[in-house]
Design a protein that fits this description.
Rossmann fold; alpha/beta; about 15% strand; globular; 8 strands
């Protein structure tokens, strides 16, 4: 199984929106997809239409109670896409993991038992704590949504340093699948300046596809739907479909063939 952590320690960059819509696009093209909500806020779970009442087991049980993937996941209304939701219990997981043995490897151990999915996306919390470290330790690669604003560049530098430390200590195979520019507004000169700066520094790591500011992307979660289903024709959905095609082209050949 290919495992991709969707991470950025800065909140409000479109991380959850990216995770939901990429997972939906992959499922729509025939992949067997697992989406893990690792954010205590549970926005990915809500945004894909899973209510709090449906979340009998969650990513907390996966990490802390050593429950299996099969016992925690919920089929979504999207064919081919399963979800491991988040509940408020997850907010205490950081504290409980501090004293645990192999505290950064809990998620990796749990996912090693899953043979039912081809690809897993992990929606990380907006921090670089133990939950995000578990995701990075379990992942093959990292997908980084980056808002087109000046302070986002400082956060990206910190994130890249964290990736290097994870590679050194926990997961030498962790790579960066790509950086996706989000909330792109061509009317704003700063947007183009930030995009140019990121591309000049990171070159091919930055996806050509950019995600624009789009009202329909913001509306979709309140309806419990990915934007790709809520409004397939809006500019935000079209951008995510383009991004999904580009992302698939970066995956290993043996998996693309599947």
């Amino acid at each position: 199984m290919i495992t991709i952590a969707v991470a950025n320690q800065k909140g409000g960059v479109g991380k959850t929106t990216t995770a939901i819509n990429i997972a939906t696009a992959l499922a729509a093209t025939g992949w067997k997809v697992l989406l893990i909500d690792l954010d205590p806020q549970g926005n990915a779970s809500t945004g894909i239409g899973v209510s709090a009442a449906e979340r009998e087991r969650s990513s907390y049980d996966l990490l802390i109670e050593q429950a299996s993937v099969a016992s925690c996941m919920i089929p979504t209304r999207i064919p081919g896409l399963d979800l491991i939701p988040a509940t408020v219990d997850l907010s205490g997981a950081e504290v409980e993991l501090v004293s645990a043995a192999d505290r950064t490897g809990k998620l990796r151990a749990a996912l090693a038992e899953d043979a039912g999915h081809e690809i897993c996306l992990i929606d990380c919390p907006p921090s670089l704590g133990l939950l995000t470290l578990n995701a990075m330790t379990a992942a093959n690669s990292l997908l980084v949504p980056l808002q087109c604003e000046f302070f986002a560049l400082e956060g990206l530098s910190q994130l890249l340093q964290t990736v290097e430390r994870v590679q050194d200590r926990f997961n030498p195979d962790l790579g960066i699948l790509g950086i996706v520019l989000t909330m792109y507004d061509r009317r704003n000169r700063l947007t183009d300046q930030v995009a140019d700066d990121v591309r000049s520094c990171l070159h091919g790591l930055v996806f050509e596809s950019v995600i624009p500011r789009n009202v329909r992307l913001s509306e979709a979660p309140s309806h419990g739907l990915p934007a790709l289903i809520y409004d397939h024709a809006c500019t935000g959905s079209q951008a995510y479909m383009k991004l999904a095609r580009e992302l698939i082209s970066r995956l290993p050949e043996r998996r693309k063939a599947a």
